[in-house]
Amino acid sequence: MENVSDEEFDAALEEALGILPVGIADHLDNIALFVDDDPPADMPGLLGLYEGTPLTERGAGWEFQLPDAVFLYKSSLIAYARDLEELRDEIAITIVHEIAHHHGIDDEKLHEWGWG
């Protein structure tokens, strides 16, 4: 898909947030969501990325930490999708996928569950 305006992408993102599975939005607490134009140069084609310490790896005294971050990569998501509906769906899938990493769920398990 080509020529997606910033407004169209933002609308797809807003719609994606509205179609997340029930309860997923509750897990966005203390996670910052960012949209970057492109993924890191050493990870071309990457749709999203979780940066932080998964909840399963945190110990006592974990208070007062900066929020974890989920990055969405606009150019990769647009290139992956065939139309705006698929773009919206892929944004939602990517958000769920990255939130799962926040909860310590690895790629193998996510692929098993259909969220790969």
From TrEMBL:
UniProt-listed SUPFAM superfamilies: Metalloproteases ('zincins'), catalytic domain
UniProt organism field: Sediminivirga luteola
InterPro entries from the UniProt entry: Zincin_1, Zincin_1_sf
Lineage, opening ranks: Bacteria, Bacillati, Actinomycetota, Actinomycetes, Micrococcales
The protein, known as: Zn-dependent protease with MMP-like domain
Highest taxon listed in the record's lineage: Bacteria
Transmembrane segments: none
